[in-house]
Amino acid sequence: MHAALVSFHFQPDKVEEAVSVYNATVAPAFRQQPGAVSVYLLVNPGTGRGFSLGIWESEEAAKAFEASGTYAEVIAHLSPCYTTPPVRHLYPVLSHFQQMQQGADGG
Q1: What is the pLDDT of residues 50-74, one digit of tens each?
Q2: The overall pTM is greater than 0.70
Q3: CATH annotation of 2-92
Q4: In angstroms, rounded to a whole number, what is the distance separating the alpha carbons of residues 61 and 101?
Q5: Are 4 and 30 in contact (CB under 8 A)?
Q6: Quick one: which of 47, 52, 40 has its CA closest to 83?
Q7: What are the domain boundaries of the chain?
Q8: CB contact at 8 A, 8 and 28
């Protein structure tokens, strides 16, 4: 697995708009990409600073998303909300833990 960590700074008065745009454009585009596992948006509403974390099956899948032009397209949708351009870095996932949820029957 690989993670794409995008750091950014939204204008604090545009955080709600940015979240709405993210949910309408970034998340659907991510879901359609081969090798996409999950995506998270983390934002401090008071400062506008935050991260988008995309989890990918492989480094190749993470790189293909950016190379396809799709990453640039979704970032363009958010550009009115940024104070500075976002920065994207790829990292291998070296450790992972996921809490398993119990079913309705307790098991």
Answers
A1: 999 999 999 999 999 999 999 999 8
A2: yes
A3: 3.30.70.100
A4: 28
A5: no
A6: 47
A7: 2-92
A8: no
- Identify any residues that bridge with 84 across adjacent strands, giving them in sequence order: 9
In the structure encoding, which two tokens stand for residue 89, read together? Answer: 């870095």
What's the first-to-final CA gap in the chain, in angstroms?
28
Helix, strand, coil shares, percent, the chain, to 5? 40, 35, 30
Residues linked to residue 92 through DSSP beta bridges, in sequence order: 2
**DSSP-derived 3-state class of residue 99:** coil
- Using one digit for the tens of pLDDT, what is the confidence trace for 77-91? 999 999 999 999 999
83 near 57, Cβ under 8 Å? no
The tokens for 94 are 């070296």
Kindly report the number of other CB atoms within 10 A of residue 56's CB atom.
Answer: 25
